[in-house]
Amino acid sequence: MNNPLISPGIGTFLWMLVSFGILAFILMKWGWPMILEALHKREEAITASLNEAAKAREEMKNLVAHNEELLRQAKIERDEMLRNARLTSEQIVEDARAKATEEANRIVDTARENINYEKLRAMHELKNQVANLSIEIAEKLIRAELSDKPKADALIQKELELMEL
């Protein structure tokens, strides 16, 4: 059990203490400031990352809210477009119906005019035919009556008396 590491002598102890002091001095002079600076930079980087993450989270909330607002507006615009399209189609149908009714009325009016015209023409033609028939009948009657000379003279006399000159 004479191991110098387990039970060191005073000289070994003193040299160990001096070498530890030199090591501690070197570490305190150059090592600790670098380590502390690295730890401080790491702390700042972590804090900055946390701040950026919080900011990104807030921006994401804002983007989600903005996207929801855009979606709501798009739905409103879509509904408005559909309503306008429906109104436009109803207006087109109503216009077509009005034009069709107007055209039908025009056709009916034209047909009535044609019917009246044809009716008047037929009546005129009928009158002409009746007049022609009447003239033919009168002509035949007059010929029949005028074939007898005394009757013809009496008829002429009678007609002359009826006429006021």
What do these coordinates show?
With 165 residues, the chain is an all-alpha fold. 92% of the residues lie in helices and 0% in strands. The chain contains two helices and no strands. It has helices at residues 10-146, 149-162. It is rod-shaped. The termini are far apart. The mean pLDDT is 88.
What share of residues are in beta strands?
A: under 5%
Distance between the termini: 190 Å
Structural class by SSE content: mainly alpha
- How would you sum up the major sheet? none
What is the string of helix and strand elements?
HH
* Average pLDDT score: 88
Total number of strands = 0
Overall radius of gyration: 65 Å
Low-confidence stretches: none
SS summary, helix count: 2
Overall body shape = rod-shaped
Helix fraction by DSSP (H/I, runs of at least 4): over 70%
